[in-house]
Specification:
It is built from 10 helices and 12 strands. By secondary structure, the protein is α/β, with parallel strands linked by helices. Helix 1 (3-9) crosses helix 6. The radius of gyration is 18 Å and the shape is globular.
Length: 287
């Protein structure tokens, strides 16, 4: 089956809920890794101990332990489909105005240059290339800090190419499916709803009605494999896209995760909730 047929095939099955195995086990060569999409929200989540960060920590204990992680973050958009190929990725502080403690945090994991180089070749159709200097941005390390706090698993990042359409981003995700049979965990890190211009920082902020509605629409679209909604670009037909994503980079990592899912996967939502009224923190597990 070629990749474009593979993309079509992922629409064929509507998935049911999955149950997490409470025992931590190592991924074997015959075991397919799950795929994750994590809402990352504020960089401050790296410092927080709450229901959201606790669920990420629990995921790290319940899914099979990967031999490597590939992260597609909302905070790396490039002119090509780039792969980070650094031996020791630096911790990137791509934000401002936060407490000093946050800038003192590091995530000292290894990289995997050989994996990055192999993936760049595998993704040549999408202008795959390597970046030997790229570190981990906060879309990656703030979540990995809770998922694998010992930083003992190699991590590479995959950049979203600004040249690709929504459908092509999905195709790149489908091209990553084989990694799951090699003990490699694929993570998309973004937010299903992301509008910083309409956040409400008050302690008792009410979730905006439009954000709740859009989050629910995407949840249902994932369950039904509804690409009409998941890839919606007609913002007249789907007006909630305009307010939910003034810019699209926080949504697109979901397409990589969805593309890397298969017909035999089920879809579940380990966490549902909002941050500051207009940021969906929903997580999605394909397993």
């Amino acid at each position: 089956m070629n990749r474009r047929d593979l993309v079509k095939s992922i629409l064929a099955v509507a998935a049911a809920s999955s149950v997490l195995n409470p025992q931590r086990v190592l991924a074997s060569s015959s075991e397919r890794m799950p795929v994750l999409f994590l809402g990352h929200g504020s960089p401050m989540n790296a410092l927080r101990d709450n229901a959201f960060t606790q669920h990420i920590n629990q995921l790290g204990k319940t899914i099979p332990t990967p031999r490597a992680v590939v992260v597609v973050s909302a905070h790396w958009v490039a002119n090509n489909t780039m792969l980070s190929a650094t031996e020791k990725p630096t911790t990137i502080y791509d934000f401002g105005g936060f407490p000093k403690t946050l800038y003192q945090m590091t995530y000292p994991c290894d990289g995997d240059p050989s994996l990055a180089t192999r993936l760049a070749t595998q993704l040549s159709e999408f202008d795959g290339d390597i970046d030997k200097n790229r570190g981990l941005d906060h879309g990656a390390w703030t979540m990995l800090h809770h998922l694998y706090p010992e930083a003992n698993i190699p991590v590479i990042q995959l950049a979203m190419s600004a040249k690709l359409t929504m459908s092509e981003h999905l195709e790149v995700g489908a091209a990553l499916q084989s990694l799951r049979n090699q003990g490699i965990l694929i993570i998309g890190s973004g937010n299903i709803v992301h509008n910083l211009g309409m956040i409400n920082r008050s302690p008792n902020a009410k979730n905006a009605d439009w954000s709740v509605e859009f989050d629910g629409l995407i949840k249902q679209a994932l369950l039904e494999r509804d690409l009409g909604q998941l890839l919606a670009q007609d913002r007249t037909k789907y007006p909630l896209w305009n307010v939910s994503h003034p810019t699209i980079e926080h949504y697109v990592p979901l397409l990589y995760a969805f593309g890397a899912s298969t017909q035999s996967d089920t879809v579940s939502f380990p966490y549902e909730g909002f941050e500051s009224g207009s940021i969906s923190m929903r997580s999605v597990l394909f397993s």
